[in-house]
Amino acid sequence: MADRRITRQGKNEVRKEAVSQDGAPQGGQVVAEAEEILEEEYRPTEADGGMFGEMPAKKAKNFGPSAKRLMGLLKPERALMSVVVLFILVSVVLTVIAPKILGQAMDVIFTGAIGKQMPAGVTKDQVVEGLRAQGQDNFADMLSGMNLVPGQGIDFSRLTFLIAVVLLMYFVAGVFMWAQGYILNRLVMRVVYRLRQDIEAKINRLPLGYFDTRQRGDVLSRVTNDVDNIQQGLQQAFSQLLSSLLQVLGIVVMMFIVSWQLALIALIALPLSGVVAGVIGSRSQKMFQSQWKNTGLLNGQIEESFSGHDLATVFGRQADMVRRFDEKNEELYRASFNAQFVSGMIFPVMNWVSYLAYVGIAVVGGLRVAAGQMSLGDATAFIQYSREFTQPLGQIAGMANMLQSGVASAERTFELLDADEEEPETATSHLPAVTDGHVDFEHVSFSYSEDKPLIEDLSLTAEPGHTVAIVGPTGAGKTTLVNLVMRFYEIQAGRILLDGVDIRDLSRAELRSKVGMVLQDAWLFGGTIYDNIRYGNLDATEEEVIAAAKATYVDRFVRALPDGYQTVIDEEGTNVSAGEKQLITIARAFVSNPSLLILDEATSSVDTRTELLVQKAMAALRTDRTSFVIAHRLSTIRDADTILVMENGKIVEQGGHEELLERGGAYHRLYMSQFAGGIDLDEQTAASAGSAPRT
């Protein structure tokens, strides 16, 4: 499909347009087509992180370069990273050596118990020879491999020392592991803190076109969820992955030190476990992708049910909404069950493979102990190594997926950081402290893409203190025109002058400080009404804020609120009406006292009575201030000094209201479409000439 981006408000508008036009219900085919568009346009994708941007990316496109760049974020923390690696190394070494020493403690107990049963005053060799003479060769072979003293029992002093050493090693290993985790968390938090600062600074340097061509959910996911995923990957994957790799390496080394024969048996399980994890893991990953997809679709169905609840109730579609929810819920249930079931098979199967190796080690180890080729303590230590061998392998598999996800999130974040920024500032001129607001467009050309020209060779003049209304069909370039004045986009040709100064020679901050803008979609932040108005000019006094509120008729409804101007507006602005929100945004623009005022369909959300009040307020406040007014409701711009009619990026008509109506051109057609039910009265009169009137 074409590049359509539907927000929640846009979805409702499409739905309303599909269901009813001019109050008349449309056919079922139209409704079905609209719902199909909504479902396709609002379907979550992995790219934009799910329905609400909650799912970060799971796979990196270029793992190697992205992982290298991610590790580069840790360069400022090289010293602490070295300490972390050292602490992990010390902890792993102590943990890996401890079973060997514990095996020595087992030998002390076993040899002491056997030695106590032997007669005192003889040597071990004499005991062994006596056993062989009695035909007990197996027992003799086992004793020959033991370091025992006949008649001597358990050496409790040595046993106590060995156990104390083991406990101390585990304690020190735990302290070092805790210390590395503490240090790693601190440095990762600093890295993520700097990354968030870089992202925030980058967002403020990005042009408006970047956000116009991307879904808000995608941008929010990169800024929030992807950064959180990076933090989780650096905190957990780095520490546990390094620790697990060192543990595997250390355990393998100790296995070969204890018994290379048993080590070969233990390592047979390694490729088998890898094959199991690879086969089952690949299948479970596909099922998890299906689970994420169905989760997003179900969330979308729930969101649509909530946002369209009134519409569903009016048309009696509750049963249909429940049916569609049940279908998607069933699909999610099946996808989730299959994903969890298959993924849950990995560790049981890997444990089964490890049990096979464990049985082989126990049998061969027992035979070697019986043959005197290995002590019981070494056999016990080796069995412990074999049991601990699978744990870090499982952690490596789990951390590998987490690291893959973290690198994928880093890749998406780096794409944001590498995006093209606004053209560098080339401020060579300055405006006077008080400006007249004289605006000139001189042969301006602009297009969003090279193959689709929009505005070509446009020239116009806005005199100081005049109101210029811009009308025309959707896509004519009305909003684009004022965006060029604000330098949200850079023109390709021509010049735009403010009081004779090319706006490209001004800094964006200086230019925009002279402009007040009110958009069609009112935006309020969480805070008091007073703070929202004062946001237009942080240096404004309380008297100036209240004066602006009175001029825009905000004061009349604020006084009726229990907390007045200190009424706190929530993030959604649900405790004030749409018209009241728009009035607050207008008051915010007026308190900034701009030289140039831009109103982009600013009265579209207010009722008719409030609209009249706002028009009176704007008429007074437009005095000595140049104003650009974009309007679809032509009744709001009758008193404009100049009306520009735009079509396909060009000004096709220009003049006053009465003058343009008399011409019978594009403005006349727009006016008739609004105030005569879409019927051109002149054409109707001509078509009916000569026919008898109805009685």
TrEMBL record:
Recorded topology in the membrane: Multi-pass membrane protein
Gene3D superfamilies in the cross-refs: ABC transporter type 1, transmembrane domain (1.20.1560.10), P-loop containing nucleotide triphosphate hydrolases (3.40.50.300)
Molecular functions per Gene Ontology: ATP binding
Biased composition (Basic and acidic residues): 1-19
Matches recorded under InterPro entries: AAA+_ATPase (IPR003593), ABC1_TM_dom (IPR011527), ABC1_TM_sf (IPR036640), ABC_transporter-like_ATP-bd (IPR003439), ABC_transporter-like_CS (IPR017871), P-loop_NTPase (IPR027417), Type_1_exporter (IPR039421)
Residue stretches spanning the membrane: 79-98, 159-184, 241-258, 264-281, 352-371
Disulfide bond listed as a keyword: no
Domain ABC transporter: 439-673
Keywords: ATP-binding, Membrane, Nucleotide-binding, Transmembrane, Transmembrane helix
Pfam families: ABC_membrane (PF00664), ABC_tran (PF00005)
Domain ABC transmembrane type-1: 83-405
Entries under SMART domains matching the protein: AAA
Location of region: Disordered: 1-28
Compartments reported by the entry: Cell membrane
Organism domain of life: Bacteria
Protein name: ABC transporter ATP-binding protein
